[in-house]
């Protein structure tokens, strides 16, 4: 038993993490074997089983824990007393579907540790997103308790089961359990290393709004020889509408789109330039060579501080093998917006609807389907925990940790701000080649090990 009267020691905790790494990987493998796919109702029992597995894991740590039912999948909440400030740790236990299954080199829910030319990796659905990342924190908690007894902070654990399916139960749950979940700060482990090499704390996240536009012309598909010319073609109309969303400089043309978009300060740009980001390599890794966004903007600036309007999918007409001379009755497009600053996602979706409705001719009807909207969020890095965590990460990784932005969206961080009134530190250890949401997802064993060690160092720094 640890001597809880002695001063807490960090080095023995780090040694314990290294010595017990095989057991920690075994626990992760047990969680990865549960096919907790939240989008498919067939897997609802497996989502419940994953929630129960985490409840048991938290109780083994000495936490009070329970799976709370929702209209969807359970929310797992645990509480572990400690000697310092109260923090909330968030992760999600649900995973993406595994299609296309034939591209997996092994069954996605039969995980294993593999030796590769780039080192040992954990292979399986959820290995990185987010079960492996979630388990780095629990591994650090287990090691700290084994060595020092109580944690140097009070921890509320909050594990969601619907993150990969739009989090429909999240907002009502947060609103109904403010007191149970409230804390000084949230910790989120669902991100990655900067440029696959340096530890990072994400301090800003772009917001997200999505919508599908469907145009309908004739009441049936038409023969293009018999009706081509006089009949409205929804694909042609839609193409013109979509082309008008951007001007020749890459700026979005919707009225009021840039309201609330701040300009990045010279100091911030200089700090990003100092990160040594390889823009050519970033694009080259996916077979591209030239930035395609707004003229005159750096790649990191476009990713972290500028809003976007992107067309994510277009359907209409005949798309099968061969050729079919048809004028389609319908055409549709899925459009998403990544938002920054104080942009209002609802106002932007309203502007998009107004633009489309004003652009379609007579005989073409338009309908819309919304897919959710969340504003951008920016964290207050003046909170002393940010400097403490930055120093802890720098110590573990042997290089300065970076404060970075994120091109993606993690809406829960914004909800923690707006509903629970607390900022989040987003710290993760994934890499761009981890293949999250793709076949053959993996998580480096070294990312898992150093992730757990990083959290232990953060514990040590946060206790003052």
Global shape: globular
Q: Percentage of helical residues?
A: 25-40%
The count of β-strands is 18
Radius of gyration: 24 Å
Largest sheet: 9 strands, mixed
Q: What is the strand content?
A: 15-25%
Distance between the termini: 24 Å
Tally the helices: 15
Q: What number is the mean pLDDT? A: 95
Structural class: alpha+beta
**Poorly predicted residue ranges:** none
Q: Can you put this structure into words, describing what you see?
A:
- This protein has 464 residues and is of the alpha+beta class.
- It has 15 helices and 18 strands.
- Strands 1, 2, 3, 6, 7, 8, 15, 16 and 17 form a 9-stranded mixed beta sheet that branches. A 4-stranded antiparallel beta sheet has the order 11-13-9-14, covered by helices on one side.
- A hairpin with a 6-residue loop joins β1 (64-68) and β2.
- α1 (11-19) runs antiparallel to α15 (445-462) and α2 (21-32) packs antiparallel against α4 (131-148).
- It is globular, with a radius of gyration of 24 Å.
- 42% of the residues are buried.
- The mean pLDDT is 95.
């Amino acid at each position: 038993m640890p001597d809880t009267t002695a001063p807490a020691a960090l080095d023995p905790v780090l040694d314990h993490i290294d010595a017990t790494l095989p057991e920690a990987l075994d626990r992760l493998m047990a969680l990865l074997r549960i096919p907790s796919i939240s989008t498919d109702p067939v897997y609802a029992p497996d989502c419940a089983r994953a929630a129960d597995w985490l409840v048991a894991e938290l109780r083994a740590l000495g936490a009070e824990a329970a799976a709370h039912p929702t209209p969807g999948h359970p929310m797992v909440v645990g509480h572990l007393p400690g000697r310092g400030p109260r923090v909330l740790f968030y992760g999600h236990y649900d995973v993406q579907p595994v299609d296309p299954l034939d591209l997996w080199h092994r069954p996605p829910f039969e995980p294993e540790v593999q030796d590769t030319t780039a080192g040992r990796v954990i292979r399986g659905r959820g290995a990185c997103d987010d079960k492996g990342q979630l388990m780095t924190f629990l591994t650090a908690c287990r090691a700290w308790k084994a060595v020092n007894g109580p944690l140097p902070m009070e921890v509320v654990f909050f594990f969601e089961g619907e993150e990969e399916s739009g989090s429909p139960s999240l907002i009502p749950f947060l609103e109904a359990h403010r007191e149970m979940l409230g804390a000084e700060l949230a910790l989120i482990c669902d991100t990655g290393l900067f440029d696959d090499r340096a530890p990072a704390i994400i301090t800003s996240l772009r917001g997200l709004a999505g919508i599908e536009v469907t145009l309908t012309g004739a009441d049936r598909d038409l023969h293009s020889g018999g009706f081509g010319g006089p009949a409205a073609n929804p694909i042609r109309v839609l193409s013109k509408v979509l082309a008008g969303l951007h001007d020749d400089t890459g700026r979005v043309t919707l009225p009021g789109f840039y309201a609330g978009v701040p300009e990045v300060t010279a100091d911030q740009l200089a700090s990003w330039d100092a990160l040594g980001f390889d823009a050519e390599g970033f694009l080259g890794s996916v077979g591209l060579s030239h930035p395609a966004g707004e003229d005159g903007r750096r790649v990191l600036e476009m990713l972290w501080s500028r809003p976007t309007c992107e067309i994510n999918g277009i359907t209409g007409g005949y798309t099968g093998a061969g050729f079919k001379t048809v004028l389609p009755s319908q055409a549709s497009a899925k459009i998403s917006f990544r938002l920054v600053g104080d942009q209002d996602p609802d106002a932007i979706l309203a502007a998009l609807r107004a633009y489309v409705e004003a652009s379609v001719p007579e005989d073409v009807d338009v309908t819309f389907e919304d897919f959710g909207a969340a504003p951008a969020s920016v964290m207050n890095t003046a909170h002393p925990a940010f400097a403490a965590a930055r120093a802890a990460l720098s110590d573990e990784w042997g290089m300065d940790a970076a404060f970075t932005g994120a091109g993606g969206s993690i809406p829960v961080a914004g909800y923690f701000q707006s509903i629970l009134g607390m900022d989040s530190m987003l710290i993760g250890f994934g890499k761009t080649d981890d293949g999250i949401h793709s076949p053959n997802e993996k998580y480096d064993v070294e990312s898992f090990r150093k992730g757990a060690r990083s959290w232990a160092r953060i514990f040590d720094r946060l206790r003052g």
